Amino acid sequence: MIETVEVENFQSHKRTVLELSPGVNVIKGRSHSGKSSIVRAIRWVLLNQPRGTHFVSHFKKKKEETSVGIAFTGDKYAIRRRNGTATNEYETDKGTYKAMRSDVPEEVYDSTLMSEINIQTQGDPYFMLNKTAGQVAKDLNQLVGLDIIDVKLGKLNRIENEAGVKLNVLEESLEKDTKELKELSFVSDLETRIVEIEGLWDKYNDLLVKKSTLIDADERLHDLNSDIKETDEWLTIEKPYNEIKVLVEKYSSLRNSLNELQKAYDDILRAETSLSRSDSLVVQLNSKLSELKKSKEYQTSFCKYCGAHKSHWRTD
Question: Containing domain of residue 219, as a range?
């Protein structure tokens, strides 16, 4: 049973809260005061009707939501919210669910246990009087909860049909796989061949390792032979080399001695040249002196050239 209805931003209702009493409840008021909007709000939660957004209040602000909440006995409830394309969902005591395009989510129905048979508007015909016996029986079953048997049977039939379809697909797939398996019967022989090839491959890798080891050993042997050959050649020329080395050292020593003698000889030549120049200068000075003795200047008291007194002059 519905205990409370809360409506926000739905048609003419800014925020309306109705607390219903057990039994029959009457909502009265003047025309166009929002009485029918309450029924529409309830239908919006329970039946997803009306659809679209034309019921959203014109005075709703952009960030506000249009919402309708219904509380039931037993602490059950269902809330429908919408705010443009950003929010369009149901909330129940069991969780939150996205609103479907047409049908109400089954989880919401499990909380409300109400459908179209529970709601009648002014324009609807009298309840059950214009329906066939089969439709009346169906409605009665729904009212007392026996319709769940039909629902469950329908689900079971649907599951059975889906399982039958899957079984047929699996049988066809099994038949196809069996046929392909027969075509691949040669694979068992291939497994033996693969084992043999893997063994040969391992032996081939071992041979490659041994080959690499032999190549390294051959290269080392070649290097050793080259070293031995160079050593033999050195031993052959070692004695003449040492003799030549001694001669070169002697030649270097003699060369140094010769350079020292050449330097002494050059010094002697320079000394002889200097001595020869000194002798020539002495001769010239003696000649000058003889001439001075004969000249009148010799009689003066002082020498014209050196300024010495004549008492210091030599006359010999």
Answer: 213-296
Choosing from 96, 124, 152, the residue where a domain stops is 124
Question: Is 278 part of any domain?
Answer: yes
Pair 284, 277: CB distance under 8 Å: no
Domain boundary (124, 145, 166) is at: 124
pTM of the predicted model as reported, rounded to 2 decimal places: 0.45
Give the C-alpha separation, 35 to 18, whole Å: 11
> 288-303: string of b/e by CB count within 10 Å (b at 16+)?
eeeeeeeeeeeeeeee
What's the rounded Cα separation, in Å, for the pair 204 and 102?
71
| CA 25 remoteness from chain centre | 66
Spatial separation of the C-alpha atoms in residues 282 and 305, rounded to whole Å? 17
Structure tokens at 197: 């090839």
Task: Give tens-digit pLDDT for 146-201.
Answer: 767 777 788 888 899 999 999 999 999 998 888 887 877 777 777 788 888 888 89
Residues whose CB falls within 8 Å of the CB of residue 190, separated by 6 or more in sequence, listed in order: none
Peptide bond into 50 cis (omega under 30): yes
pLDDT band at 303 (very low <50, low <70, confident <90, very high): low
Instruction: Compute how many other C-beta atoms are within 10 angstroms of the C-beta atom of residue 182.
Output: 8
CA dihedral 288, 294, 295, 296 (to 10 degrees): 140
Average confidence score pLDDT of the chain = 83
CATH of the domain at 113: 3.40.50.300
Average pLDDT over residues 77-84: 91
Structure tokens at 93: 């005591």
Give me 297's structure tokens.
């200047």
User: Total domain count for the chain?
Assistant: 2
